[in-house]
């Protein structure tokens, strides 16, 4: 039988039993020692979501957190160390476990839920309080003594602890599809991976490896960016607001106001899911679809008109059929600069940083996505760009040349480049003096910013049409704006110079 390769970031059901069905644990102390060795050899290489130790077999539900060779060797070290100690204690020789521990890749959410419940329901009697199963650590909200139990993924998948308990109580061992009863009989029908009759009891919350990684990434990126911005401002701190969306999901909004540098700004993350609204189904040309969308979006409006406004967004989207299978997925995002006074060095620095990030993945990306940015961030009703552009990409889907992992690497590269692109500009301009007329000009140009966001911006429209949180969606709007009737800058002025550039995109690098 060909063994599954343990691939990094993927989930697996790992199990085995004693050779010829013999006991591998003769006492509670044996089981405790096995768990102690598990922590010693697997910690930092494997994330454990569930486990159960029975007298003659064991089960693990794990995620590989290391390269294939290192992960495989870690399991080998665990089993060899335990076998050696067990044999010495019991005055026996030879193999203890059946040759080659079994492993099956978890290829769907339903399969994960099935194996998760199956492992915990394996003990025949009093499974809720069985000492050598991970269920009690979910039920009692404790942590195992010997290693870290990765509970976040499972609780997220089942929506909450109460739902997790409820599904376990409804579960029956015979509902398992595609795993092996190590106490004796096999059931190898690896087709549906479903908890029969329980589909509607589990809150739908789509999940996969790319989604998990990106969702984790934007949480970390939000922390990195807000910490640096607070340092640069030196006065104001971000106010955090955690919110939930009634239809599914939620987010973490962070807003900074009335600082020494930033008059208003926000760095927000969200992850929302559920039924795709009718208006969006028509937009995508689908029927009866579910979705998941997550991303980080930021806008910063400095007080000083010599410091440019900046916007950035990095997002991931999935769409599902009635069975919960992914039918479409893509990345999108970018970053762009909106100055009120033109400093060509700033424009060149911002674009060079964008180009450098792009070139690490494909030299064609920068000119392609720079051009799309100029086209997208354009107020057609004003015949001018919103700013000096940057990058804009959307519907980045898997192709023969670019896998979803490749797109993940590219998008996170751009996200990681944001502070490098923007902060040096802020530091250079934040102490420049300015006049009241220059401040008025800034507020008039902010009006153009508002017009674009409310008339053209897809992200704003998507948030409004999916019942997103209004305060977070409209966070991008500046606090002080002017609309002056038929305002025209003076001929030959710095203000007119900016307008001319906005009407004709420039290749800055």
TrEMBL record:
Looking at the keywords, is tRNA-binding present? no
SMART domains referenced in this protein's UniProt entry, alphabetically: Y1_Tnp
Catalytic activity, EC:
1.3.3.3
Instruction: Supply the Pfam families for this chain.
Output: Coprogen_oxidas, Y1_Tnp
Assigned GO CC terms? cytoplasm
Which protein is depicted?
A: coproporphyrinogen oxidase
- Pathway(s) of this molecule: Porphyrin-containing compound metabolism; protoporphyrin-IX biosynthesis; protoporphyrinogen-IX from coproporphyrinogen-III (O2 route): step 1/1
The record's listing under PANTHER family reads: COPROPORPHYRINOGEN III OXIDASE, MITOCHONDRIAL, OXYGEN-DEPENDENT COPROPORPHYRINOGEN-III OXIDASE, MITOCHONDRIAL
Q: Which domain of life does the protein's organism represent?
A: Bacteria
Keyword presence, Repeat: no
EC class (word): oxidoreductase
Q: Molecular function (GO) terms listed?
A: coproporphyrinogen oxidase activity; DNA binding; transposase activity
Q: Which GO terms describe its biological process?
A: DNA transposition; protoporphyrinogen IX biosynthetic process
- Name the family: Belongs to the aerobic coproporphyrinogen-III oxidase family.
Keywords of the record:
Heme biosynthesis, Oxidoreductase, Porphyrin biosynthesis
Task: Tell me the ranges covered by the Transposase IS200-like domain, including all copies.
Answer: 7-122
Q: Partners and quaternary state?
A: Homodimer.
